[in-house]
Amino acid sequence: MQTRNYFSYLLNPLELLRTKKILQVNPTAIATRKEPEAVKLFVYDFDHEHIDIKELTTVSSCFGYMESPSTTWLNVDGLRKTDIEAICTKYGIHYLIAEDILSMGHRPKMDEIDGLLFCLLNMLYFNEQDSTVEIEQISIVLGKNFVISFQEDETRDVFNPLREKLKITGSKVRNNSADYLFYSLLDLIVDNYYVVMEKLGDKIEILEEDIVRNSNKRTLARINMLRKEMIILKRSVAPVRELVNGILRSESELIEERTEKYFKDVYDHIVQANDLAENYRDMMMNLHDLYLSNVNLKMNEVMKVMAIVTCLLAPATVIGGIFGMNFESIPLLHNQWGFFISVALMLLIPILMLRMFRKQGWF
CA-to-CA distance for 347 and 167, rounded, in angstroms? Predict the structure, then answer.
């Protein structure tokens, strides 16, 4: 982490607002999203022999693909209410699904309404500069011969490998129906969870080394920051297990029997991702305990040094106090070697004490 990152965390109270953003969810409040100026639509209409890839300029241009005998993937970038409602109305998507598509901060879920399968989940990205996990909500609707994906950010997603496969004649996605395309989208999203977790794991390993070598307030700030990112990761990954399980338990005719094995594979992946997220969360708790142990150990070392110094100075204090008493008759008071004898005792006794401490293994 760069210096400016943890200093901003320590000195800028606004950084603490991320905690409120992560933990506070009010499903009854109407979330407001700044609508994009334009909605970008990309259509991939294909079968095992041909593929038609187009970028549409108007929403109405995609309506003609509804009756296409081939498989159609409509990728909608940008969530503008009027356009989303128009697409949902034309494709027979229930208004409750349309509300979920336009929602913000929704828990990942799966629904089956009016013969359509609907999935809402999060795509995760790792911001290398700020060492934070970023979330983009995506909604996917599966119909008889079409799949529609709705996402917020038009500049990034995790579907480029799928786009490349669609261009290859004879690829599995080209030789299968819409349910395999639906599986492919979910599989890419879940696989990207591992990419984010791997980068978080690297940050945790670096942080663990820093804690062992040098624990300070900056280290504590980094621990707290990574704990927040683990909360985001856990909240995004854990519900997807129920989502995929819901698809497997669904009796929808849209999921062919030959495709079920692929969804079982996604289920296995999300179970492993969930277990890995749990392990990372336990690691963060252990790192916090390790930090506290190191702090206490340093404090004990300081107290031990101070105690030893105090013990070593005690004989000199006692000797100086004895010879500094205001009595007329004190041994060695008028002896010409009295001063040197007292100084020698002040040095000899601490040396003997050090040897005794060393023999006892106190340091």
Answer: 87
